[in-house]
Design a protein that fits this description.
Layout: E1 20-23, H1 33-40, H2 46-54, E2 59-60, E3 63-64, E4 76-79, E5 100-103, E6 107-112, H3 128-135, E7 143-144, E8 153-159, H4 162-173, E9 178-186, E10 193-197, E11 200-204, E12 210-214, E13 222-231, E14 235-242, H5 249-256, H6 270-278, E15 286-294, E16 301-305, H7 310-321
Parallel strand pairs: 8-15
Antiparallel strand pairs: 1-4, 2-3, 2-4, 5-6, 6-8, 7-8, 9-14, 9-15, 10-13, 11-12, 13-14, 15-16
Length: 324
Amino acid sequence: MPLFPMRKIVDPPAPPPAVRLVVVGTEHEGQRLDNFLLRVCKGVPKSHVYKAIRDGQVRVNKGRSRADVRLASGDSVRIPPLRLPAPGAAAPVPPADFPVLYEDAHLLVIDKPAGVAVHGGSGVSFGVIEQLRAARPAERLLELAHRLDRETSGVLMVARSRKALVALHDMMRESRGRKHYLALVVGDWVNDRQHIRLPLLKYLTPDGERRVRVDALGKPAHTIVTLQRRYAGRYSLVGAELRTGRTHQIRVHLAAQGHPIAGDEKYGPDAVRAALAAQGFRRMFLHAHRLEIPHPVSGEPLVFESPLPPACRALLDQLEHARP
């Protein structure tokens, strides 16, 4: 019986990317062009998207546009042939569900765990918002209303409508609402209530790491600190209310008073972090405990609370029963 050589079956090559014209829907009314593109062109590196905008390859209503332009419903956006993931390809971001504190048609409030970034970037491939979108593919819009540091846990708001997102961003920018945190600081905090008003300036270290310092050239920042409990002069549990929302504000303000947050790898002592790790505590003790804010659409007063995570409660229990 004659033998015939077997031919290897090769999948046809994927069609090259092509120019697309996308009409902006009402759910993206008021969104920045760059954020719109990053959402529509999932999987495309940010650098490619921004280069396409700079080079004039992206057009809004047939005209060149800047990355920060706000889109209107009905706008036509020309998207150049950026290389996108193949249709039907497995999502590169693992979906995740987070404890839900509140949810309606306009707003989703979750309890963010420590150690998870709120979004991808700066060496992090994905964060909370990308995982939420992967877990809720039918959602028309999911956008961060504000941010928490990667090592900070607690209340995090996500907008589910464009109207809510714009309103929440305005509230955050105008410091409306009350944001309360709990922090364990190194040392014996003295004052029962203290206002810290120190300007903060962002800068980069020689290694390119983002940091913040107290500097007269910085932006005004205001934190109200209240003493909750002392632990044998070694640590103090404090409440911190943000009256402004600067990057790393609570961390830098407390460190500037000589009381850095326990476990803070950027602004706290290495020896304290190592000692806490030996006790089994391997995070920064900063928790977004309570948020009071009007509903972004109805105006109804809302209060969200997140209890201290088990790791934080366990550390306080250890300190409570530790020998002086």
